[in-house]
Amino acid sequence: MPDFGRDEHAEALLTSSKARYGVISDIDDTIMETQAWSLRRNIWNTVTGNSATRHVFPGSVAVLDALHDGVNPVFYVSSSPWNLQDFLVDVFTRNSVVKGPLFLRDLGISDTQFIKGSHGSHKGQSIDTILAANPTLPFALLGDTGQHDAHVYLDAIKRHPGRIKFVGLRHAGPVDAADEEALAAIQATGTACFQGEDFSQVDV
Questions:
Q1: CA separation for the pair 195, 147 (Å, rounded)
Q2: Over the stretch 21-53, which tens digit does the pLDDT of each residue have?
């Protein structure tokens, strides 16, 4: 029998009227090292580590804090499944990562496939949802080169003309010719773009 007398609490983000822009950030290899670009390494890191041992990139924490600036909303989009939510919240809390809603991936069964949606489609749909919920704000997108975030962000720029003002990509894994092409296409749109080993080099 459900305990209807028990109090339940949940946090919600209400975007401030003082916000100048929003931030959407990937998690794996953007904020926290997982080596998601290698299935073998990703699995090893997942099963052998815990929230206290996970390495979080200081430069990423710092740039998120600077972009947040106490008022600008920060959202996190990842292909990690929902059952890692508590783990990710613990990692973020331990490392003083800016709080924000998590958009994680549903690994349930759909009509046509075992895992619902691809990495790119999940991330793209989540970006669309966030922008629709904040129609007056431009956005900065942070990601990495390990899972072809440049392609996802280029598509978002095309779907939302004028809404994406900055793209930052941390180098993780190999940067192939397709990534370079997508990065060049992002720059050709006039969108400010950074790519490098560490976000501490970003001038906010």
A1: 14
A2: 999 999 999 999 885 544 444 443 454 555 566
